[in-house]
Design goal:
This protein has 3 domains: 1-149, Orthogonal Prism (Agglutinin, subunit A), CATH 2.90.10; 150-283, Agglutinin, subunit A, CATH 2.90.10; 286-439, no CATH class. The protein is built from 4 helices and 34 strands. It has helices at 3-19, 317-321, 365-373, 420-439; strands at 27-28, 33-34, 40-41, 47-53, 60-66, 74-77, 90-93, 99-102, 108-111, 122-126, 132-136, 144-145, 153-154, 160-163, 168-170, 172-177, 180-191, 197-202, 205-209, 229-235, 239-246, 253-257, 263-269, 274-281, 296-298, 306-308, 312-314, 329-331, 342-347, 357-360, 378-382, 393-397, 403-404, 413-418. A hairpin with a 5-residue loop joins strand 22 (253-257) and strand 23 (263-269). The N and C termini lie far apart (103 Å).
Length: 440
């Protein structure tokens, strides 16, 4: 074999090695790259990483999708706000050890952008969880992971929340439209004030909230115990987060923040070969944030879904007659703090939003009542945790916002401040109802 033949064979081998990766590979190391045709596939063949195009555009994106189903369902997009305009994109590990996505001019359109890597000996790997990770040498742990930078989809083991130790703020952002992965108008995140609650925003406007986590569930979302997944909430000095785990690793499920602003839980049906939506938020008009205004409660089964709390009347009566409830309710008579005042118990309600509040996780419910009663601006109190008979104290001050009557079983109770006359009316009404039920 002459010199030119040997040179050609070496060049051809090197070119193939540098420009293609076996579809069975789950990792990308230095001197390898992914182009428009090559992909990574997780070890258990659950997820695939590669390039895809939107339906009505030639734009190309680097993304991750389920590999084990016939429908391409994208769960993560790297360059969602900086698409490639042709199919010449290349993903590789750069000289500094970061994953880098380049266009045909070798311009970087996306990077993992980890600062001050101590070594460029890094390896990227696609895990069976759908998490793309970057490892350094053979050390344990990840120096970067896609789960810390979600798109519009929440997978099992992926967190929503805030991690102060690592400076992370993890939340979903909707697509701009059904076929445009650019960041849209809606976000789905953890509100860290008080107790964690899941919140949908449109820009800076709050559209929905789950109610606070009470140790068993989010107080405004009664999840029926199921065999598919289980929620997990972490609250400590360094982290406040929500995630879910799978009870069966073979289950394919995802939660998606749609471009229209709803969060839908899907499960893959192996019989119909379709994604089945099993849960959606908001689920009814009472889930719309502040549907009935302040100091009121929304009951979806009511003839009129909005009603004022005991001791309150509509702020603008004419508006309520026209089913315009946004003005909310005000006290019909001022409190005579603290003479003769007490509290009316409401069970099975979504806790009010944390606008003005105070929390103590070790206080008893009786001490919580006393703490609220001695402060004339305290309007309600409740246990912060309902497990084990209940513990901790939540106090609300001022107006109570975004309450909803729940139809399922809940151990959460809310105690709302009332005047002596309102307490008498409530006890008389409650006694009459109890008598009628016993007679019937």
């Amino acid at each position: 074999m002459d010199f030119f033949a040997i040179f050609y064979n070496i060049f051809a081998f090197t070119f193939l090695y540098l420009t293609d990766i076996s579809l069975a590979d789950d990792h990308l190391s230095q001197h390898q790259l992914i182009n428009g045709t090559a992909t990574l596939v997780s070890a258990g063949k659950k997820f695939r990483l590669g390039f895809f195009s939107s339906i009505n555009s030639r734009n190309q994106y680097l993304g991750i999708w389920f590999d084990s189903i016939p429908t391409q369902t994208v769960v993560w997009v790297a360059n969602r706000d900086n698409p490639l305009n042709d199919s010449s994109g290349i993903l590789k590990i750069g000289d500094d050890g970061n994953l880098i996505l380049q266009d045909h001019t070798e311009r970087a359109v996306w990077s993992t952008n980890v600062k001050n890597l101590s070594s460029n000996s890094t390896v990227a790997q696609l895990l069976d969880s759908g998490n793309l990770v970057l490892r350094q040498d053979s050390r344990d742990g990840y120096i970067w992971q896609s789960f810390d930078h979600p798109s519009d989809t929440l997978l099992a083991e992926m967190k929503l929340g805030r991690d102060s130790k690592n400076g992370l703020d993890q939340y979903l952002t909707s697509w701009k439209s059904a076929d445009d992965p650019a960041p849209g108008d809606f976000t789905y995140s953890i509100d860290p004030r008080g107790l964690p609650q899941l919140v949908i925003h449109k820009g800076s406007i709050k559209m929905f909230r789950s109610g606070p986590w009470n140790g068993e569930q989010f107080s405004g979302v009664l999840l029926i115990p199921n065999l598919l997944f289980n929620p997990k909430v972490v609250t400590d000095s360094e982290e406040m987060s929500y995630e879910y785990g799978l009870n069966n690793e073979s289950t394919l499920t995802r939660s998606v923040l749609s471009f229209s602003g709803s969060v839908q839980r899907y499960v893959w049906n192996v019989s119909s070969l379709k994604w089945i939506a099993i849960h959606v938020l908001p689920s009814d008009p009472c889930d719309n944030y502040g549907q009935c205004g302040s100091n009121s409660i929304c009951t979806i089964s009511g003839a009129r879904i909005c009603s004022c709390l005991t001791g309150y009347v509509p702020r603008v009566a004419q508006d309520w007659e026209m089913l315009i409830w946004s003005g909310g309710c005000v006290r019909k008579q001022p409190l005579n703090c603290p003479k003769g005042e007490g509290f009316i118990e409401k069970k099975g309600v979504k806790m009010p939003d944390f606008l003005q509040f105070w929390i103590n996780t070790s206080m008893s419910l009786k001490d919580c009542e006393m703490e609220c009663l001695k402060n004339c601006s305290c309007t309600a109190y409740a246990n912060s945790d309902v497990t084990g008979g209940g513990s901790g104290c939540l106090l609300w001050y001022g107006d109570l916002i975004d309450m909803k009557s729940l139809t399922g079983s809940s151990n959460q109770k809310l105690y709302i401040r009332a005047t002596a006359s309102d307490l008498g009316i409530f006890l008389l009404f409650f006694g009459l109802r109890l008598y009628q039920s016993q007679v019937n």
